[in-house]
Structure formats: C-alpha cells, structure tokens
Design brief:
Chain lengths: 122, 264
C-alpha cells in the first residue's frame, strides 16, 4: 500500500512514517503542504492519505475537499492527524468525507486503531 | 460622552466652557441679539475644533512613541536599523524556537532509532541462547554443540557489554537534548514580555482614539465577524484547557464519541 504523509512539520512526518513502518507500511512518501500534495496525489496511485489540518498554503480540510471533488481521487481513504480539536471542525471534516480523525498528541495505538478501522470498512 | 473604555473623554474645562457659552447663547437669543449669538456659535465651534486637534495630537504622539519604542521597521526616528526592530527581533526569536525544538526532536529520534535495533538484537539473541541453555541443563547437548554454545555465549557477553554502553550513552544524550526546553523557555519569555508591552500600548492608543471619535462623533465599525470566519478555515492550532471548554474535544475518546453520535 502506497501512503502519502502530509504535514508542514518534518518532525511530525518522521513520527508518522516511523509508526506506519512499525505497522508494516513501508511504502510512504511525504509532502509539506496541501499545495505540494495535490499534484502528487493526482499523478501518483496512492492508496491512503494521512494529512494534518493546519498548513500554510493549502490546509488539510481544503486538500480533503479537493480530493473528494476529483473523479479519480474521490474515494481515496483519508485520515486526518491534527491538533485541531474544535467540535465544529471535527464535524466539518466528517461531512467533507474524512474516513478517520486523530487528534494530537496521539498514541501509536490510536493511530493503529483508526487505520485498521478504515481498511476493515474498505 | 464617554469612550468605549468607560472613561470620560471630554475634559471638564471644555464642558464648562460649552455650558457657559450655551447659557450666554440662550441669553443673546432671548434678547434678539443675533449678531452676538452668531459670534458665540463661532466661538463654540472653535472650542470644539481645538479639542479635536488636541485629541488627535495626543493620538499621533502616542503612535509615534509606540513606533519609536519598538523600533518599528521604517520608523523615521534614530535611522532605525532593521535588526533593532523589536517585532523583527521577536519573529527571529520564535523562528529560533522552532529550529531548536526541531533539532532536539530529530536528534532524539536519531538516538532512539540507533538504540532500538541494538536492544531488539540483544533480546532475540538472549531468547535463542536460553533455548540452548535449557538443552544444556537437560543434558541434551553434544560436546560439539557445547563448544559452539560456549563461543556464542562469549560473543554474546561482549556484544551485551558494547551495546549496553552505547544504549546508556544514547539515553544520556536524549536527556541532554531535552535541554532545549531551557533555551526555548528563556526566548519565549522575552517574546511574551514584548507582546505584553505591545498590548499595553495598543490599549492606551485605543483609549485616546476613543476620545477623538467621541469628540468628532464617529462610531466604530464592526470588524469582529470577518476575523471569525477566517479562523475556521485556517484552524486554531492546539487547544489549551480542553477539559474546561464546551466547544472543544478533550482527547481521542471524545473525538470518537462525537463522530459516532453523528453517525460517522
């Protein structure tokens, strides 16, 4: 499975990459913003998107909406991993079609649970 | 008239003067003395204008002082060097905090990544050796096997010694890396102090501006709504005191509850 990790902080990308690797997912790539991620998704055959919310160019919620609006990417499983914790935002993400929402700081178990849940459904 | 902050904005002197003029004006009008009444009206307007000019003067002086105090970039005073600008300085400091914390995180992760396989290797080898050891205890081992075991044990002891030394070294270094908190804490305190100064200055300026507005008769516009709309898309970053707030979730469990209660 090919996974794209999107977050503007390289430290967080590294953490997620490591956790995914421990779960057996070694085929990962990274982007530092929604703006750089979108073209990668459009041309890249990714099977799973993990994204932060707060990014300077294009935010995660905007990226999610772009993905859901694209014919080819519309059903791409997407997990948000973010510090954004306002109820309004969580609901907005769910309504925009996110498949899972993990708040920071998170545990390895929480990440694992959400990923398993997403791929059990598919 | 009072300004937004509730302090009286027109000086007692001006009110007295206006009162006197008003009384005198009424008198002149009652005596049909239109010429002198006109002169009085002109005088009242002049008094009001004076007051406006004084208030505006206070405001511009206040602004000027704030700009000079913070050495704002582009300030005409003291031929300000961009490096003296306090806001520029604060930005630099905050970038420094980002840099320090990122380096500490990366180094810490490097050390953990180095240590993890060593620790795993030791565990695995110990488990394998245990199996052989049990065989030895149950006298199931041949002399050839025993010689191999003997050598393997020897190697294991050496590897354990060097690995654990390295592990302890890495653990120690991880502790040291946490020293970033001290440096970043100091830097952040300075930035907090600057923000506090700016806040106080702004409050004074708003108070003075309020005086100008009420003398001139302007009412301030509603600018709050636009700011709130922008915040929703950009997000707010990590929340504090999540347990005390109604509009924010407190931990992953509450996220999950919220989503399942809505059918997601």
């Amino acid at each position: 499975m090919k996974i794209l990790i999107v977050d503007d902080f390289s430290t967080m990308r590294r953490i997620i990459k490591n956790l995914l690797r421990d779960l057996g997912f070694t085929n990962t790539q990274e982007a530092d913003d929604g703006l750089t991620a979108l073209p990668m998704l459009k041309s890249g055959d990714f099977d799973f998107l993990v994204t932060d919310w707060n990014m300077p160019g294009m935010t995660g919620i905007e990226l999610l909406k772009e993905v859901r609006a694209d014919e080819k990417l519309a059903s791409l499983p997407t997990l948000m991993v973010t510090a954004e914790a306002k109820k309004d935002q969580i609901v907005e993400a769910a309504q925009a079609g996110v498949n899972g929402y993990v708040v920071k700081p998170f545990t390895a178990q929480a990440l694992k649970d959400k990923i398993e849940k997403i791929f059990d459904r598919v | 008239m009072t300004s937004q902050l509730g302090t009286p904005s027109t000086s007692p002197d001006m009110i007295d003067e206006l009162r006197q003029c008003a009384a005198l004006l009424t008198e002149k009008l009652q005596g049909d003395n239109y010429e002198e009444a006109s002169e009085l009206i002109a005088k009242v307007m002049e008094c009001r204008d004076q007051h406006i000019f004084q208030s505006i003067g206070k405001l511009t002086r206040g602004l000027h002082n704030a700009i000079v105090n913070f050495n704002v970039n582009g300030s005409q005073a003291s031929g300000a060097n961009v490096n003296d600008c306090k806001f520029h300085d604060a930005s630099n400091r905050l970038n420094y905090v980002i840099e320090l914390t990122q380096n500490a995180a990366e180094k810490t992760m490097d050390m953990v990544e180095e240590a993890a396989p060593m620790s795993l290797g030791l565990a695995q080898e110990a488990a394998l050796l245990k199996v052989e050891w049990l065989r030895l205890r149950q006298r199931e081992m041949t002399p050839v096997e025993f010689r191999e075991f003997y050598t393997r044990l020897d190697v294991f002891f050496d590897v354990t010694a060097t690995s654990t030394t390295k592990l302890n070294e890495n653990l120690q270094n991880i502790i040291l890396e946490q020293g970033f908190q001290d440096l970043t804490g100091q830097v952040l305190k300075r930035v907090i102090s600057l923000i506090s100064d700016v806040e106080n200055n702004l409050v004074s300026l708003v108070r003075i501006a309020g005086q100008v507005e009420s003398v001139v008769g302007i009412s301030p516009e509603e600018v709050k709504e636009k700011a709130e709309n922008e915040r929703d898309i950009k997000g707010e970053g990590p929340q504090m005191k999540t347990a005390e707030r109604e509009d924010v979730v407190n931990g992953q469990d509450e996220v999950d509850d919220l989503l399942s209660s809505l059918g997601f």
